Structure formats: structure tokens, C-alpha cells
């Protein structure tokens, strides 16, 4: 990445593009209450149409698989037991899962209706083709930003066609449509209306978004809320701490919120880390028990929920590894046809559990640059690369092994032409941009619930190839979009 003193393109263009971004909510909140635009590329990436269409076909099948696995409560408990002992946070999740669903000997029936809004992240590897990086089943955000990135690039194409053509990878490429905002709103509305109809109540559903205190990614969240409000839905926002004193039970297990009334959909943008449940002012003898219990309480009511505790467990790195290691035929036990199971296997990258023998193999025989070491954490900062893997593996105690996994490292295609990244209003030329593609899907009670057979839209985050962290907030990532070539 090379910073240049002279502008790469007319600053009038980037000034107007950053103003467009702010005006359309493509922004991050600063600590002082002001906002800055999300970093973005000046022109979209290019992807082969056949690769894109393959991902559109396979991703809803992956979601069907995860949806069915998440409702196989005995399998979740048994297969994740060892990992939950190695990772305290997942130990807490499995404890919550048992409270909601009971044990194999004494099962309970949970009232909640599962709404799986999932983002499956891929990289298109140079040799292996497109492979899954991870499943995101909780707080799977930035779908609205994905759609806005498409619209920003369309704005660039119409307003400054020459500049757009100068920096686009292929002048004949066609934009891939992205209706993520509309499709997610459609899915949530459909689920909420079904719950409301079951209670025989008139009017539009009420939607609760569970958020983190002092969240900086509020604009992505608000874009979804605005799309829901346009459909007549009332939206409310609360933290777990606020909910600890505001939730109650109504008749027939109706979930009630103080000063609001009945809730039809609960959507968690928090809850994927211990910090979200940490409340020192409660002076708990057992950390995080009170706020984590809120999720148990919610799931004991007849309300559409994303993410359920079981969905969060089913999208863990360990579950991803277990599914990857299974024979194709084994995947059919969760409602997949053999053809669908083959499609799923086509996008799963190799993953390996950690053991003393595996560590010895890694030290003596493995090509270290071909692997990534991952723990169970969500978001950036949870991956270890190259020689650092050896250091981390040597530091692990045997009781820690089950919290970690080795995964085949993916080396995606670098963009064939340089592009311009715009961050904090400044232009930077990037010569080696690579992209991570997240496809959104929505299933309700195990069935696709978008107008596109479960597919909802996509998010592209691009970064310089030499950078390991590609997050928009914490890494070197920039928002991007897709154009297709034959």
C-alpha cells in the first residue's frame, strides 16, 4: 500500500463520495458522538459468474444444514462437550442450552421460534476455489453496508464514469445485484407477523434489537431498523442490562417489554462474548450469570429469536470443523440430499483438531504457511498465522486443546489492477487487494424466508494481501462490491 502526496483522483470526487456515504448511513460512530465514513474502494472487485452462482446455490443449503444441526440438541450437547470445558464462554453457552432444552434424559420443549439470519464468509482461493472461512450465526451484521457499497459504486459509475472505468478491474463486468436490506427486513417481518398472528393480535409486529452499550456500529443497525419501520414495524433497542429489569411473561408465554408491550422478534447484536454479559454493578458471586440468564428467559417464550443459543453453538468453529471432517453421507442425517451434501463439501476447507500428536506433526512435517490457527472467538484478532502458530501451540495446556483448531489457509486472488481505498477522506492506492465475501441467508423454523429462496444478499470486505486483519472497524478492511465476468 503506497501513500502518494499527489491525489490519485480528483479530491472533489472522493469528497462527494464520502459525503454520499455519510448521508446514506455508511458510517461508524466516534466516541464523541460524531461519525466518520466507513472506508471503501472507489470501484468494485471482479468475480467469475460461475463461482458467484455456485455460492448462491450452496449457501442456502449450508444454512439449511446449520439450521437443522442447531435443533439437534442431543448432538450439540455431546459433540461440543469437550470444547465447552476448554472454552469458558462456550461452557456458559452450553449451560444455557441445557437450561433451555434440558438433557437427553430429561428434554424440555423451548417455546421460541428460531430465526436464523446467518452470514457465511468465503475466500476464493487461487487453487482450491471458493471456501468457507467461518459461519456467523450471532451478531451477523453489515448486510445493510453491503447493499450500500453496491449503491455507492453505482453512484460512482453514473457520476464519474471515466474515473470508475479507470479503476474498475474489468470494464465489461456487470454489477451483482444486492438487496440485503430489503431481504433481511422481509425475513424479519415475515417471522414477526407469524408470531403475532398466532396470538390473534392485529397490527404490525414489534422488533427488539439487543445491543451493546456504547456501540460504534450503530448506523448499520439503524439502516435495518429504518427498513423495518418502512414496513410498519415498531423497533426498540435495549442492552442486556436494561432487559434484566424490563422483561416479563404475558399470557401463553407472550414475551413482554416494559412500556412497550408484546415482542414478536428478538434480534441479538450482542451476546457473542463474555463482556456483553458483564455487569460489575450487580456484584454477582458468579460472573455474568444474571445477564446470560436473560437469553434463557427469552427463549422460554413464544417469540422469533436470532440468534438462539443453539444457533450460536451450531455456528462455532468446532462445529464447523466437525462438519468438515464428516463423510458426505453423514451430512444427510440433517435433511440434506446426497447431491446437497456434495455441494456443501465442495466449499468446506480442511480443519484439524489440536492434540499432542498434531502439534508434533505441525512442528516437524507441516508447511506452516498453509495453515491458520483459530480459537472460538468472533470478530477480528482470533487467528494466528505462520511461525506464530508454533509459539501459540507450545503455550497451550492439554486442557486448552479443544478450544482451538487448525484450518487450511486460503490465498484468494489478488485484484488484477490497483484500486483506490478511501479512509478518513484520504486516498491510498492498493496494488494487492484481496476480498472476503459474506453471503447472507435467512431461515425461519427451518425454512427459507426470503424472496430469493433463503438467500438475502452479500457483504464484501477487501484488504491488502499482506494484512491479516480485514475488519472494517478494527482491521485494514474496506467496503467493496461485486461485478461479474464470464
From TrEMBL:
Protein name from the UniProt record: glutathione synthase
UniProt KW keywords: ATP-binding, Glutathione biosynthesis, Ligase, Magnesium, Metal-binding, Nucleotide-binding
Taxonomic source organism: Enterovibrio qingdaonensis
Pfam families, per the entry: GSH_synth_ATP, GSH_synthase
Involved pathway(s): Sulfur metabolism; glutathione biosynthesis; glutathione from L-cysteine and L-glutamate: step 2/2
Similarity section: Belongs to the eukaryotic GSH synthase family.
Keyword Nucleotide-binding: yes
Domain Glutathione synthase substrate-binding as annotated: residue spans: 206-314
Requisite cofactors: Mg(2+)
ATP-binding keyword on record: yes
EC identifiers of the protein: 6.3.2.3
Amino acid at each position: 500500500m503506497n501513500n502518494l502526496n499527489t491525489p490519485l483522483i480528483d479530491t472533489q470526487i472522493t469528497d462527494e463520495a464520502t459525503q454520499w456515504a455519510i448521508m446514506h448511513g455508511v458510517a461508524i460512530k466516534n466516541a464523541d458522538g460524531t461519525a466518520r465514513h466507513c472506508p471503501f474502494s472507489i470501484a468494485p472487485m471482479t468475480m467469475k459468474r460461475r463461482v458467484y452462482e455456485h455460492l448462491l446455490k450452496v449457501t442456502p443449503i449450508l444454512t439449511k444444514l446449520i439450521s437443522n444441526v442447531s435443533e439437534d440438541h442431543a448432538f450439540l450437547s455431546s459433540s461440543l462437550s469437550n470444547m465447552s470445558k476448554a472454552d469458558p464462554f462456550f461452557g456458559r453457552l452450553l449451560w444455557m442450552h441445557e437450561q433451555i432444552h434440558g438433557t437427553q434424559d430429561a428434554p424440555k420443549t423451548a417455546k421460541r421460534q428460531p430465526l436464523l439470519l446467518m452470514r457465511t464468509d468465503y475466500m476464493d482461493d487461487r487453487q482450491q476455489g471458493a471456501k468457507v472461512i467461518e459461519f456467523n450465526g450471532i451478531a451477523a451484521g453489515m448486510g445493510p453496508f453491503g447493499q450500500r457499497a453496491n449503491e455507492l459504486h453505482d453512484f460512482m459509475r453514473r457520476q464519474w464514469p471515466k474515473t470508475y472505468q479507470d479503476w474498475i478491474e474489468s470494464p465489461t463486468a456487470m454489477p451483482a445485484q444486492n438487496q440485503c436490506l430489503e431481504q433481511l427486513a422481509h425475513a424479519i417481518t415475515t417471522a414477526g407477523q407469524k408470531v403475532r398472528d398466532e396470538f390473534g393480535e392485529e397490527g404490525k409486529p414489534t422488533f427488539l434489537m439487543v445491543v451493546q452499550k456504547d456501540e460504534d456500529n450503530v448506523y448499520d443497525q439503524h439502516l435495518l431498523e429504518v427498513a423495518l419501520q418502512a414496513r410498519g414495524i415498531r423497533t426498540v433497542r435495549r442492552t442486556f442490562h436494561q432487559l434484566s429489569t424490563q422483561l416479563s411473561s404475558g399470557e401463553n408465554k407472550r414475551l413482554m417489554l416494559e412500556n412497550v408491550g408484546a415482542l414478536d422478534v428478538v434480534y441479538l447484536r450482542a451476546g457473542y462474548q463474555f463482556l456483553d454479559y458483564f455487569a460489575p454493578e450487580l456484584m454477582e458471586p458468579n460472573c455474568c450469570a444474571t445477564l446470560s440468564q436473560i437469553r434463557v428467559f427469552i427463549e422460554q417464550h413464544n417469540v422469533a429469536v436470532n440468534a438462539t443459543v443453539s444457533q450460536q453453538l451450531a455456528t462455532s468453529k468446532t462445529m464447523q470443523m466437525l462438519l468438515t471432517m464428516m463423510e458426505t453421507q453423514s451430512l444427510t442425517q440433517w435433511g440434506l440430499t446426497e447431491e446437497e451434501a456434495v455441494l456443501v463439501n465442495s466449499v468446506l476447507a480442511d480443519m484439524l483438531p489440536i492434540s499432542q500428536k498434531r502439534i508434533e506433526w505441525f512442528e516437524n512435517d507441516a508447511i506452516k504457511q498453509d495453515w491458520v490457527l483459530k480459537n472460538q472467538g468472533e470478530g477480528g484478532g482470533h487467528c494466528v498465522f505462520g511461525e506464530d502458530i508454533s509459539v501459540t501451540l507450545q503455550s497451550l495446556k492439554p486442557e486448552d486443546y479443544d478450544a482451538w483448531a487448525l484450518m487450511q489457509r486460503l490465498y484468494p486472488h489478488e485484484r488484477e489492477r490497483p484500486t483506490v481505498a478511501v479512509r478518513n477522506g484520504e486516498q491510498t492506492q492498493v496494488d494487492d487487494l484481496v476480498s472476503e465475501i459474506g453471503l447472507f441467508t435467512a431461515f425461519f423454523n427451518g425454512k427459507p424466508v426470503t424472496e430469493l429462496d433463503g438467500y438475502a444478499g452479500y457483504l464484501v470486505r477487501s484488504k491488502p494481501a499482506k494484512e491479516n486483519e480485514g475488519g472494517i472497524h478494527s482491521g485494514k478492511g474496506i467496503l467493496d462490491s461485486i461485478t461479474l465476468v464470464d
